[in-house]
Amino acid sequence: MEPTIHTVFESVTGTWQYIVADPRTKETAIIDTVLDYNKDMGVISTASADKLLDVVTDNDYTVSYILETHAHADHLTASRYLQKMLSQRQNERRPLICIGEHIAQVQETLGQIYDISESELYGAFDYTFSDGETFRLGNIQAQVVHLPGHTPDHIGYIIGSNIFTGDSIFNPDVGSARCDFPGGSATALYNSAGRLLSFPSHFRLYTGHDYPPKDRGVRGPEQSGAIPYTTVEQQSKENKHVKSGTQEDEFVKMRSERDSTLSEPKLLRPSMHVNLRGGRLPACSTKGFKLEQIPASIVGAE
Predict the structure, then answer these.
(1) What b/e readout covers 96-112, taking b as 16+ CB neighbours within 10 angstroms?
(2) Which residue positions does the secretion signal occupy (predicted)?
(3) In a domain, 286, yes or no
(4) Quick one: average pLDDT of 14-43?
C-alpha cells in the first residue's frame, strides 16, 4: 500500500518538507519541517509551518509523528511549534517528535561547542529510532534506515516504495551533501548512497534539499525548478557524484576537496541551538543567535 505524499518547498533554505499519510486511515507523519528565521532582525515566524498545518486541516489528517532525518545545520525545525498546534487541534493527541538514536552523539559533541547544557538536551526528542526499526502509519508499515555520512545521526524513512533520504543523497544534477561537520564522513556517505541505490529501481528517493542548477528550468513560480524526488534508477545512472560505478576513493577525494572550499552555513549556530534541543528555542539570545521577536503561538511549545 502506498501513502499519499504532499511536497512543500521552502525556498529560502532550499528545504523540502513532506506530509505523508495513509489514505485510508488519514494517519500522518510530517518530515523535516522549517521554522522561519530572519537572522539579521532576530525574528522567528511560522509561515512555512502554517502551510503544513493548512494541508493537514484541508485533508482531515491526524498527525502521529513529526520526523527528523538529522540535526539540520541550515534551518531551524518547526517540530515543537507544530506539536503544540496539532495537539490542540487533535484533542490533545500529541504527535511524537522523532529522530535517529545517534543524535546522542551529535548532542554530546555539538552541545559542548555551542555551550548547551546537558539539562537542556536531556529528553529533547520524544523517541529515537534504531537502524531497521519499524513503525506503523495507519495500515502502512514504515522502516528506518541509518544513513550516516553527512552527519552521524542521519536516518531515512522507507514508507511504501518511497525513501525520504534527508541529505544522504541529492538530486542527480546536484549530487551529494557536505561531510565536514563534526562526525561527518565521506566514506560513510559513499556507503549510505550505495545502500540507497541498492533498493529496487522504481523506488522514489525524496531528498531533503534541492538547489536547482540554473540550466534545469522552472517548474512553477513557487518551486523555481526544485524537484522533490527521482528514482533509484535515475540516481544510479545520473547522479554526478555517486552514480553506479563511482569508486569510493574517487568520491572521497572529490567530497573532501569540495568541502574544504565551503563556507559555514548561514544559519549554522541558530540551527544547532534549536535542533539539538529538539525544536525548543533557547530562553534568550545567545552568541550568533539573536532573538528579538517570537510569535506568542511558539511560547510554551514544549
Answers:
(1) bbbbbbbbbbbbeebbe
(2) none
(3) no
(4) 97
